[in-house]
Amino acid sequence: MNKNIIYTIIALFIWNFFPNGLWAQNQSLTTIQSKIVDELGKPLANVNVYSDNRQTQTGKDGTFTLKVNNDSRITIEADGYQNRVLLVNEIEEETQLEQSSLYYDDEDLVNLPFRSVKKGDVVGAANSLDVNDISSYDNSIWLNGVLSGRTLGMLGSNNIRGLGVSLDIGSLIGTQTGTAMVVVDGMPRDINGVRLSDIESITVLRDVNSAVLYGTAAMNGVVLITTKRGEAYKRTADFSVNYGVAFPRSISKPEYLSSAEYMEYYNQARINDGFVPTYSEEMINNYRNGNKYRYPSIDYYSNEYLKSSRNSVDLNAQFSGGDERLKYLADLAWNSQGSILNFGEGKNARSNNFNVRANIDLKINNWLNTAVDVTGLFYNSKGPRGNFWGNSSTVRPFEFSPLLPISMIDPENKLLQGRKNDVDGKYLIGGNSNYVTHGIADGYAAGINNSVWRTFSFNNRLNVDLGMITKGLSFHTNVSFDYFLQYNQATPKEYSVYEPVWDDNDQIISLKQHGKDSNPGTQNVEGRYFRRRMAFYGLLSYDRTFESLHHVTGSLLGYGATFKDNDGANDDFQGVKSSHIGLQLGYVYARKYMIDFSSAFVNSVKLPKSNKVGFSPSLALAWVISNEDFFNKPDFLDYLKLKVSTGVLKSDIPVGGFFYYDDRYTTSGSYNWYEGGKSRSGVISSWPSNPNLTFATRKEVSAGFQALLFKSLEVEANYFYDIYDGLVVRPSSAYPSFYSNFVPYENFEKDSYKGVEIGINFNKKFGDWSFYAGLNFLYSVSKRLKVNEIYANDYQYRKGYGKDATFGLEALGFFESQEEIDKSPFQTYGVVKPGDLKYKDQNGDNVIDSRDEVFLRNWQAPWSEGLEVRIGYKNFTLSLIGEGQQGAKNFRENSYYWMDGNDKYSVIARDCWTPETKNTAKYPRLSSEANSNNLRRSSFWLYDNSYFNMRRVQLNYNIPMSITAFLLMKDLDVSLDATDLFQIAPNLEERSLRIGAEPYYRTFSVTLKAKF
């Protein structure tokens, strides 16, 4: 670990606890005592009492004793009660806490776009996660691993309600966050590399009403993330150390045939094609039993090339505190992860990730304050050059011997004597004219590649209290700048590989050199890529409660953002630009009747002048019927809120490019003139103008309820129906075929999404025991209502099927004989032989082609769920979280299953069709030629992709306060955890296989957390 990081952490620790210098320890301390009681005078136990860096809890009798500085403020916090902040001279013999109303506690804040409200005042479909609470029992390091299975309405970690199939908002606006828009501290941002320890809360904005203030990019919903900030008079220093060991899941490693077995099956493929076998029995036997260097059989997944595990280390230090004028939070973290490779430069390969964050709030005067947030991420990953994992799935095991023992080579060989490179003085690097470089040789001799990422984020907020004009009025601004840079640093080396000639005694009598050994020492910078984003908003806000009954809110917002990257082609001149004006008006009466009108006037740079501005209105209503006097509430019902919302969100995100509304021309052909001495290309139309091109829209209706039963069981359920209308395509189906160059872009296609989301949470304490269970269910399906398509047969039309539908051929099994082939419809995908797949002729024309393709699957799961369970006993807590999806299907279509020609063979080859195994074969015949008939999407290759994954299991032990106090700590926690412990799936092998990439891991780690 970098020593500078350690020195910085120590310096921050000293400054945090001795802000006025070491002489501060000589300041006079006062011992305060009090008894904390509720409004009825009943003592309250386990109440937290803070003063600067000192903390204590009340005992069973409600009393506490604490030494504090004379000028300190004392913060008193208890679940279910309003927090209090008192001066030393305000502490009395008894201190009373006021009980909070249900969902109106100080801890019940929900962050919404550009404002925060109490949970009881939430009108739309928005739910918040308390990350501080999550961190107390979940030691996940990265933010992107937290959402799955834990959040109502989320499908996986980056999709809300299953909306926006194939509309990847994150990719289009540069946040790389999937279909949902992700906002961090008010601005769209990439969360790759954002740590969970930096986060205060996460809110998922699922309906149009909740999300519309973020404009066009909010089309698929928004994940709103708020980072931590320092609290006045609550100085803390948090440290965590995590050590983990990750083991490759054995089922995740592909299994390939050995050299001898490959040759046997390749001979069978030749026979299947009507050719003579390629490999003799003698050769096959040599590769089975002979000298492994002369007759190699490379297993890329053996312990010769892979370790049994890889390790990781994570260190984190976070400091926060301040007073009324200045509050701060500083976070430093280092994460390091080893490699599973077990040879060459891969043995020492390692990635290092340094995170730095500083959030500062400064009160300039009573009506003006500012905030500055700075974040930096510095990532380096050093490892061997080359493509080991890619070779593992493509290079056949007998092609070459990666290493040639020097002991087997004639010592007088001039190439051996003149070599400039070897491996540990024992081996030369093997190869041949077809493999002058390869993944294993690269690991030994090609040098090191250093992948570098740099991320810088900056926020500057200004908050102006305009209470001098009217109470509740304020003005806010935020300016942000983000920059991401990625490149590879490499110092490449050239190397030779040697092709051996063997004698009958298995000795190498001659070598042929391919390539040359060279180390120029020149550092190359390759693969440069950057992303740059600037954004701002200005907000005039009003928030006031009249007579404790009428809560009125209003916001007038101006928002703009621009994103640019070098997309590899360097032809993205425009980037992504968005701007809009937002308006929010809300009213709550007596915490019973609630109404929210949120809207956006959006602007587009992609649309014609007459349609550049669109209006996106939404309305949400809520009724807390359980607060009505006329409602005969049963004893078990504590709270019941009914909600409904509707809205129209206009977006230019589905408009794929710029100037689609304008005439576009291109060149065509070449025409000679001047007696053939000169030529010019012609000009033709690409598409004509469409001055009516406008925004696509998301139109939504959502309704549901929120209830609390038995004071411990929360239930929320919502139904939603969304229509995505005016999706932009060139509707060739609406024009004659000869009109192809004159088909404009139009708002033509339409899709719908509908579903139900249900969340159930049970939380109860029984003496020393505590129990929590959370269940989230989501059912979501899409349907194409209008599609640009023309087909000859009704069954080919995509209309009426899901947006995620895939079409292909319906397989009927294998052809068993040439006679059966002759009697069947003609299949147009190459020569068909016995053992090939037989397809159904859907239209009866006696020909199998694309016109016989039918609906096969939906690739997005209609059903998904999350399960979270926590069981606590005294200082122990056991937590589990799992998530699953059902109803989606996938294809067995990678190179592990689709083998033809000279491909590498997996163990799937053992179950391929032969005349002898035609009654038991699971897969079509092997072929030494290209076989496009079998290797195409059809019902044969489908499998059920349902699963349930136990994502995390963790056991915590909180060290008793008597010990932590002796250690001068506020809190000390030790935990053991396992991630991706097991998965239940009908097709677990297919889901788990990793082809051409690192395997999936099961990780075990131990974490120590200390709070000072």
Explain this structure.
The strands form 13 sheets. The protein has a 22-stranded antiparallel beta barrel. A five-stranded mixed sheet has the order 10-15-16-13-14. Strands 3-2-5-6 form a four-stranded antiparallel sheet, with no helix packed on it. Mean pLDDT is 93; it is low at 19-26. It starts with a helix and ends with a strand. β38 and β39 form a beta hairpin. It is mainly beta. α5 (259-272) packs antiparallel against α6. Helix content is 8%, strand content 46%. It has twelve helices and 52 strands.
Q: Span between N and C termini?
A: 23 Å
What is the number of beta strands? 52
Proportion of helical residues: under 10%
Secondary structural class = mainly beta
Q: What is the makeup of the main sheet?
A: 22 strands, antiparallel, barrel
Give average pLDDT, whole number. Answer: 93
% residues in beta strands: over 45%
pLDDT < 50 runs, ≥5 residues: 19-26
Radius of gyration: 33 Å
Q: Note the total helix count.
A: 12
What is the global morphology? globular
List the helices and strands and how they pair.
Layout: H1 3-17, E1 29-37, E2 48-51, E3 54-57, E4 63-69, E5 73-77, E6 84-87, E7 94-96, E8 109-112, E9 115-118, E10 126-130, H2 131-135, E11 154-155, E12 159-160, H3 169-173, E13 181-184, E14 187-188, E15 199-205, H4 208-211, E16 222-227, E17 236-248, H5 259-272, H6 281-289, E18 310-322, E19 326-338, E20 350-365, E21 368-384, H7 388-392, E22 403-405, H8 414-417, E23 427-429, H9 439-445, E24 448-465, E25 473-490, E26 497-502, E27 508-514, E28 524-546, E29 550-565, E30 576-589, E31 593-603, E32 613-624, E33 637-651, E34 664-673, E35 678-687, E36 696-709, E37 713-729, E38 746-766, E39 769-786, E40 805-808, E41 811-814, H10 818-823, E42 826-827, E43 837-839, E44 847-848, E45 854-858, E46 863-873, E47 876-886, E48 889-891, E49 942-944, E50 947-958, H11 961-966, E51 971-984, H12 988-992, E52 1001-1011
Parallel strand pairs: 1-7, 13-16, 42-44
Antiparallel strand pairs: 1-4, 2-3, 2-5, 5-6, 8-9, 10-15, 11-12, 13-14, 15-16, 17-18, 17-52, 18-19, 19-20, 20-21, 21-24, 22-23, 24-25, 25-28, 26-27, 28-29, 29-30, 30-31, 31-32, 32-33, 33-36, 34-35, 36-37, 37-38, 38-39, 39-46, 40-45, 41-43, 46-47, 47-50, 48-49, 50-51, 51-52
Helix pairs in contact: 5-6
